[in-house]
Amino acid sequence: MKQKSKVKTSDTAVLVIDMLNDFVLDNAPLFVPGAKQIIPNIRAILDDARSNAVPVVYLVDTHKPDDPEFRVWPAHAVKGTPGDEIVSELAPHKNDIIIRKTTYSGFYKTRLLKTLRELRVKKLIITGVATEICVQYTSADAYMNGFIVDVPDNSTSALTTENKVFALNMIKNVLKPRQV
After folding, report:
1. Residue 133, SS3?
2. What is the rounded CA–CA span in Å between residue 18 and residue 134?
3. Interior CA angle at 63 toward 120 and 99, to 5°?
4. Would you call the peptide bond into 130 cis, given omega within 30 degrees of 0 as the criterion?
5. How far is CA 90 from the centre of its chain?
6. What is the dihedral of CA 132, 118, 96, 44, to 10 degrees?
7. What is the pLDDT of residues 75-126, one digit of tens each?
8. Rounded CA separation 134/130 (Å)
């Protein structure tokens, strides 16, 4: 039996967060364990979205070489380097939207909210890495901005299993879906 689609043409968008070389590839400076394993699940969501004319938005971590974030994390996703490129297996299509971000939330000082409002989006399917950082903060800001948040657990990966479980529980129990 075919799995029911999670995407609705009229009100949904898919976010792909930080599926970048510097998080996914072996020996990446900020390698997220399990990131490679979620690629097929994200690709299935993207195929479903694109076949239903649902917008796909890539949120791309991008930093300057001297970014203050590097006091907390190893240097990663430096603008113009191969590390800030989306992994080839999830390469954006022609009509996909790419939004660069400089911190955890995809909403902070970006054009994401304006873009989603222009598209009349009400629900976000959020995928990518890291569950306990960029996925969780983007999900929280999405909720605070009135969006219904759906984070499929097989389409995110975290720095540790414990962090993933905690973050997904927070998203599920604090950002409870609302009816549109």
Report:
1. helix
2. 8
3. 15
4. yes
5. 12
6. 60
7. 999 999 999 999 999 999 999 999 999 999 999 999 999 999 999 999 999 9
8. 6
Structural tokens at position 16 = 């792909």
How many whole angstroms separate alpha carbon 21 and alpha carbon 112? 22
Q: What's the rounded Cα separation, in Å, for the pair 28 and 150? A: 28
- Name the nearest CA neighbour of 174 among 133, 142, 152: 142
Tell me the one-letter amino acid at 171. I
Q: Using alpha carbons only, what angle is made at residue 72 by residues 162 and 69, rounded to the nearest 5 degrees?
A: 120
Asked whether the predicted pLDDT for residue 36 surpasses 70, the reply is: yes
Q: Which amino acid is at 5?
A: S
What pTM, to 2 d.p., does this model score? 0.92
Residue with tokens 């909403």: 107
Is residue 31 very low, low, confident or very high in pLDDT (cuts 50, 70, 90)?
A: very high
* Structure tokens that stand for 161 in this block: 């299993």
Strand pairing report for 123-129 and 97-101: unpaired
